[in-house]
Each structure stands twice: as C-alpha cells, then as structure tokens.
Amino acid sequence: AQSVAQPEDQVNVAEGNPLTVKCTYSVSGNPYLFWYVQYPNRGLQFLLKYITGDNLVKGSYGFEAEFNKSQTSFHLKKPSALVSDSALYFCAVRDPGDNTDKLIFGTGTRLQVFP
Amino acid sequence: KAGVTQTPRYLIKTRGQQVTLSCSPISGHRSVSWYQQTPGQGLQFLFEYFSETQRNKGNFPGRFSGRQFSNSRSEMNVSTLELGDSALYLCASSPARTREGETQYFGPGTRLLVL
Predict the structure, then answer these.
(1) pLDDT tens figures, A14-28
(2) B42 touches A at CB < 8 Å
C-alpha cells in the first residue's frame, strides 16, 4: 500500500536560516511526488513535483526538493527562510500505476519561522 | 485563468441533515477530486470524477456521494450528517490530458460544521 510519512509535526527555524521539511514515501515502482503548502483558512497551494529526471526539483517561492530513491525520501528545502513561509506543508504521493489523480498525503508539518 | 472555486465557503448543518457542496474546476480541466481534511485524520481522498464518471473512490461510507456534469463542474453530497463529518472539504482539478504526473490544483475549500 502506498504511504507517505512526515516525521516532524513542527519545524522551527530562524528567519534567514536554511530549512528542511522531511518526507519519506512507500510506493511500488517509481512514484510521483508532490509538495503543497496550506496557509490558514486556505486550500492547498502547489509548490513542486517530481515525476522523472533530475533528482533536484525547483519550485515556487524559492523552494526545492531532492528525490532520493535509495532512501525513499523527498525532503523540501529552502536556503533562506522567510517569516512568510510559516504555514502547514504537505507531502503527497501518487502511484503512476494507479490510473487516477488520487493523492496520498502525509500528516503535514507545521513550519514556524521566527524573526 | 480563474482557479478552482468552491461554494459555499462555510456551512453549518445539524445532525441528520444532508448537504451538497459545489466545485467548479479550472477552465479546461477534466478531472475533479474531492478530499476531506480533519485535524484527526488529516487529508483523505473521497473520490475522483473524470468525464462524468467516478474513476476512483476512497474509503468513506455510502452517505458520501458525488457527481460530475458535462461542463466538468462537480458536486458532492453527504446525507444523514454526523458530527464527525465536520471538516474542510477540498476540491482539486487537473487537466488529465495524460497520466504523466498531472498536477492537481486545489480550491479554497468548504468548511462544514455539523452541530
């Protein structure tokens, strides 16, 4: 069965410091991986995705993620955090063998960036 | 291009009532998926519609149903509401031109409170 794990409920980082939000997955075959961000009282905003190709994926707002097949991870990173990055971040996986758009989400990680 | 829109944004119902939520996908998008978000269960897939046909269904009771119209707009219905149905219901659409890692774009959600 497909699954996604976000091991940290919350990540705290000082503004200007690099940030990492962790995600590991379990899916048969080569997965499609996504990161979304959710601000209070809003829906999910797409940040980036990995489908195939270069393991380092660049996305919106300066975020990037690295696909590591051997560690089954897809950690979200940003070189310099902003207070405005404070939000709830979700990692999601889709099984390419499953002929639908169904996403399996992690439990979410709350990122708090302190001034 | 306008994003995914959902109506109503907020809804209060009492136990036993039924509710219908509406979703208008991004113009040209043919696939619509619904998700339920709660603090306890996180983001869970409800169902997906493509070309007016349900393509996939999550593990929810039969009280939860949906449909898609010829213009790709979708509705979901919950009958005999229970307190546990209180949640943020998110709709997402994708172009579904190919099965190659299409991105789903989410609406702002409908927040349902069951009293």
Answers:
(1) 999 999 999 999 987
(2) yes
